[in-house]
Write a structure and sequence with these properties.
This protein is mostly beta strands. It is built from no helices and 59 strands. It has 7 domains: 3-94, Immunoglobulin-like (Sandwich), CATH 2.60.40; 99-188, Immunoglobulin-like (Sandwich); 195-280, Sandwich (Immunoglobulin-like); 289-380, Immunoglobulins (Immunoglobulin-like), CATH 2.60.40.10; 385-473, Immunoglobulin-like (Sandwich), CATH 2.60.40; 481-568, Immunoglobulins (Immunoglobulin-like); 579-665, Immunoglobulins (Immunoglobulin-like), CATH 2.60.40.10. Pfam families: fn3, I-set, Ig_3.
Length: 673
């Protein structure tokens, strides 16, 4: 009779452990087979092996798994087909097991974090989380929660939540406990702080500028600078300091202006901010050139300048200092300035010759200025400077007729008479020569045919102009008129007259005044000073009647006399009172100066001086000096004393009225030894 037994009837096995069971059959078994909990015959595999040894069969289970739990049957069969079996109950439990624990675990500040702790056991474990030795469920912060999957949830995690969290598992039935410490790191996205949003610099002065960018974040962010979308790297232009928090731009140029991007990046994110570099550039005039136009045409002068800020442009006309700015118009409306963005155009219409010359363009901004000059050249047809077209001469008297021409460009000038270009060959009395802008025609008339009309012709590419000149035959002047005597004395007469109606074609050199006593036959000739129409006759006799007549003299000769005029000099009389002024002399003296006076027609013979002090009733003192003297010295006077003086002039006919004069002597000077 078959009997089957198994060495163990009930076994508890931990996941991962190995165990074998021995089944013994008593009798004469022909087969011994093992069946799994699912009732399937067990065939040996790598992990589950059946080994038969006579009346025994061993079932070995390696690395037991939860699925291996259940009732295993060992069945023995004899030759008659009768069977007997025994069973063993295999209970498998799982120890506390932490799987794929990751530490540290990193999160982004502000997100809802889930700290993962995969712990298993059988029966299922009880999992709790501790932070700073305190269960998170006891923390008064509803942001912490243990999820159904035993993970720890932290809502809107922030940097202060960073630290070590303990994931602890317990199996109450077995008193089993285990834990894992998980480091939680909270990464903070970068936040950039710019010390300045804009920077100013001036170009072309060798300046450098420092741009600053500070960034916070965890982990510390990496800072980079970008310009025009390209990463800035250190080179001769750029230098980076302080982990790229400071960007130094060297040798500032205008092209360095614009935005610079600071970019901060870490594993939590990135931030970027823009700072702007404003580059000031000294104004620089880049376009200004000389211009040429023609009279009555139009001209446009262009001045272009660059700089930052964009400079304002002003025009200045050098000839009169008048300035023109954008939008200005001249009073006559001919000149107008238009412009924008550093370009200015000065428009001139109905151009005049007076518009020519230098024009200054000044470009100015708040950081400086630049000035350049250009010249406006105006081309015009020839013009004649002199309005004198009538000349006079006479046979044998050479004369120069001047033709002065202004023209731009310079003109070709010729003298003509009729169709002939002068001078004609084989003639000696006609010559031409140039002096500067003038072409001189020299004529030495030899006959009446040399008098008449001559033509000066000037030509340039703008046009041809001519001017006609007339050479007339000169004559002597006509007679002066209106002769009259303005002032008379005993020995002089001032004569005035009107100039002749005709000078004869050539200038008057001087006037000739003929004078004689009525009873005399001899005329005395007195010449005027140049062409003055007033002559003073001197050395005349007193109380005498004279005749005068006047003639004008020019290059050809003396003209006709005027009508004869008669006048009588004054008789001799006593002199007029002398004119006196005085000043202190040296020491105790006083100097009286005598101004020349009317002597009454006879020489002053002497001056009689009477003087005395005013402070005392002194006697008059008397002093006489010769009439030829021009001063009188009074001596031996008293300091600080006032004096009165009487001065009388005498000629052969008698005495003048006395002149009264008063003066005071100065105080006695201090003498320092």
């Amino acid at each position: 009779l078959l009997q089957v037994t198994i060495s163990l009837s009930k076994v508890e096995l931990s996941v991962g452990e190995s165990k074998f069971f021995t089944c013994t059959a008593i009798g004469e078994p022909e087969n011994i087979d093992w069946y799994n909990p699912q009732g399937e015959k067990i065939v040996s595999s790598q992990r589950v092996i059946v080994q038969k040894e006579g009346v025994r069969s061993r079932l070995t289970i390696y690395n037991a798994d939860i699925e291996d739990a259940g009732i295993y049957r060992c069945q023995a069969t004899d030759a008659k087909g009768q069977t007997q079996e025994a069973t063993v109950v295999l209970e498998i439990y799982q120890k506390l097991t932490f799987r794929d624990i990751v530490s540290p675990q990193e999160f982004r500040q502000g997100e809802d974090a889930e700290v993962i702790c995969r712990v298993t056991s059988s029966p299922a474990p009880v999992v709790s989380w501790l932070y700073r030795n305190e269960e998170v469920t006891a923390i008064a912060d509803n942001r912490f929660a243990v999820l159904a999957n035993n993970n720890l949830q932290i809502l809107k995690i922030n940097k202060s939540d960073e630290g070590v969290y303990r994931c602890e598992g317990r199996v109450e039935a077995r008193g089993e406990i285990d834990f894992r410490d998980i480091i939680v790191i909270v990464n903070v996205p970068p936040a950039i702080t710019l010390l300045q949003k804009s920077f100013n610099a001036t170009a072309d002065r060798g300046e450098a500028i420092n741009l600053f960018c500070r960034a916070t974040g965890s982990p510390p962010p990496e800072i980079n600078w970008y310009r025009n979308g390209k990463l800035i790297e250190e080179n001769g232009k750029y230098m980076l300091r302080g982990s790229n928090t400071e960007l130094i731009i060297r040798d500032i140029k205008n092209t360095d202006a614009g935005p610079y991007i600071c970019n901060a990046k870490n594993k939590a994110g990135s931030d970027k901010k823009q700072t702007f570099l404003q580059v000031f550039v000294q104004p620089q005039i880049i376009q200004l050139k000389n211009e040429t136009t023609f009279e009555n045409g139009k001209a446009t002068l262009i001045c272009e300048a660059e700089g930052e800020p964009i400079p304002e442009i002003t025009w200045k006309r050098a000839i009169d200092g008048v300035t023109f700015s954008e939008g200005d118009k001249s009073p006559d409306g001919r000149i107008e300035v238009k412009g924008q963005h550093g370009k200015s155009s000065l428009h001139i219409k109905d151009v005049k010759l007076s518009d020519s010359g230098r024009y200054d363009c000044e470009a100015a901004s708040r950081i400086g200025g630049h000035q350049k000059s250009m010249y406006l050249d105006i081309e015009y047809a020839p013009t004649f400077v002199s309005n004198q077209t009538m000349y006079y001469s006479w046979e044998g008297n050479p004369i120069n007729i001047s033709c002065e021409v202004l023209a731009n460009p310079s003109a070709s000038v010729q003298w003509r008479r009729g169709k002939l270009v002068l001078p004609v060959k084989n003639t000696t009395h006609l010559k031409t020569y140039s002096t500067g802008r003038r072409l001189i025609l020299e004529i030495a008339p030899t006959s009446d045919s040399d008098f008449g009309r001559y033509n000066c012709t000037a030509t340039n590419r703008i046009g041809t102009r001519y001017q006609e000149y007339t050479l007339g035959q000169a004559d002597v002047p006509s007679n002066p008129y209106g002769v009259r005597v303005l002032e008379l004395s005993q020995t002089t007469a001032k004569v005035s007259f009107n100039k002749p109606d005709s000078h004869g074609g050539v200038p008057i050199h001087h006037y000739q005044v003929d004078v004689k006593e009525v009873a005399s036959e001899t005329w005395k000739i007195v010449r005027s000073h140049g062409v003055q129409t007033m002559v003073i006759l001197s050395n005349l006799e007193p109380n005498t009647t004279y005749e005068i007549k006047v003639a004008a003299v020019n290059g050809k000769g003396q003209g006709e006399y005027s009508k004869i005029e008669i006048f009588q000099t004054l008789p001799v009389r006593e002199p007029s009172p002398p004119s006196i002024h005085g000043q202190p002399g040296s020491g105790k003296s006083f100097k009286l100066s005598i101004t020349k006076q009317d002597d009454g027609g006879a020489p002053i013979l002497e001056y009689i001086v009477r003087y005395r002090s005013k402070d005392k009733e002194d006697q008059w003192l008397e002093k006489k000096v010769q009439g030829s003297r021009d001063h009188i010295i009074l001596e031996h006077l008293q300091w600080t004393m006032g004096y009165e003086v009487q001065i009388t002039a005498a000629n052969r006919l008698g005495y003048s009225e006395p002149t009264l004069y008063e003066f005071s002597m100065p105080p006695k000077p201090n003498i320092i030894t």
